[in-house]
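Please predict the structure of the following assembly.
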Amino acid sequence: MDCIFCKIVNGEIPSNKIYEDDDIVAFNDLSPQSPIHFLVIPKRHIESCNFVDKENAEVVGKIFLKISELAKEMGFDKSGYRIVNNCNDDGGQTVKHLHFHVLAGRSLNWPPG
Ligand code: 5GP
Ligand code: ZN
């Protein structure tokens, strides 16, 4: 499958990984939009939020648990952060492998454009 995030998972494309276990990987975004900007993804290919189902939903909980832990470890839990998932064209999804952006380190605007 021609998916850049699957290639990051299997090491075909290098990335700056900040966490990895059997199910998920977190790595810095190539084009950071805030001082801290990383992505957390399931290792298994799930195309988008539309493809989260009863069979694979557990990994989404694992991703949110890890984000909560990383926020504390990296020290931005108190100042705050934003978790973003973009789905399909209107959501601005450019990579069709489920991923959650974690943005921190500056005050973020709301609403998004
Ligand atoms: P989306 O727009 O799909 O929500 O987000 C995709 C994100 O993946 C973008 O923020 C983009 O900068 C990031 N990205 C795209 N290609 C690569 C890559 O090869 N390596 C890394 N680390 N990030 C990437
Ligand atoms: Zn993939």
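The chain has three helices and five strands. The mean pLDDT is 98.
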